[in-house]
Structure formats: C-alpha cells, structure tokens
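Quick log. Single chain, no ligands specified.
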Amino acid sequence: MLAQAPRTSLADSAANSIRAEIAAGRWAVGSRIPIEPQLAQLLGVSRGTVREAVKTLVSRGLLEVQQGSGTYVRSGFDPSVSLQKMRRASLRDQFEVRRALEVEAARLAAVRHTAKDLRNLKTLLEKRGVPDASDAGAGFIERDLAFHLAIVDISGNLALAETCRFIAGYIKETIASTMGTSLPEPDHAAHQAIVDAIASRSPDRAAEAVRAFMSPMIDTLSQGAP
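-> predicted structure:
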C-alpha cells in the first residue's frame, strides 16, 4: 500500500511516492504502473494531481506514457536526486570531477579529431576571448563552456559527452568561481596549450595540458581558499 501523499505540494508528494515504489523495485523497469484512477485512490489525491505527478516523472525520464497502452517505468534512475547530491559537493570536488572528465576527453580528442574539429575548436577559442561588457560575465561563461564541451564532443564518446552535459550547470559554476575571486582564471595561453596538445595527436600531451590547466584552481582550493 502506497503512503498517502500529504496535503502540501500534492503533486510533488505524489511524484515522490511513485518514485519510491520504482526505487524500491516494486515497479520494475519496463512494467506498467497502475492506471490513473487506481493511483489516485492509492495516493489519496485527485486524478489531476496524479497526471501532474506523472508528467513530472516523465520529464525526468523515469516514466514513459504509451498512448492506448498505459504508463511504463522507463528508468529507475532519477537524475534530479543526483543533481541535488552534487549540489552539496565542495567546489574542489566539482573541479576534480571536471578534471577527470576533461582529461579523458582531451586524450580521446587527440586521437580522434578531424581537421574540421580542430578548426571549430580554434574558432571557439577565439570567440571565448572576445570581451562583452554588456552581459556581466554570463556571455563569457557560455563561450568558455562551449569551448570545453567542444573538446568533449570531439572525443567521440557519447556517454562522456552526455555526462558532461548532465553536469553542465556545475561546470558553469566552476567557471564563474574564477571570476572576481582568489581562484586563478586560466588565461588564453592555458586554453591554447590544450588546443595545441590535441592537434599534436599525442594523448599523453593532451591529458597533461588539461591537468596543468586545472591544477592551479584545485591546489588553491586544497589550501583552503573560498
């Protein structure tokens, strides 16, 4: 018997109850969940609230609605939970994860890049350095992110690319943390060194360029800087 949803934030509570059933394995991936009237009765909420809860879980990738058939469990993994946990991670932790991902991306990019990939990367690096006083730094962060995500795309590893996009918000936070703080902001030369290393087709050189790029921020954070 599902726990009835409290009267506050009914749709969210209903979604949490459904998610708990999935996480506990009582509704396995691929199985069809109870129909809307049954869910409403089990949760003690209206059918409209159930529809809203299901819509939320569909958007998070846990459920899938198949017209004329029902609603099925698509995944037992809720990315929003992982994002909430990651938000509690320290800035140093976030930089260390970013370094691990980008080191491997650069290694693969050095081996797999095409001439077109390299031209695009150089163009993004040039755009990154163009100042834009009107955006109060937001535009710079987006341009910097585009440069780094391009390296991940060039790696040719879809799982790696999707992982980086999944945590793109946190990558933005690491970029923003170097603006107007005691953390060192990698200069143009540090970014150019990564491009040159990828162009050399040496995976070890590319990996080392990213480590050299990230190390000053991580070292500063390890020493207790905010």
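DSSP finds eleven helices and two strands in the chain.
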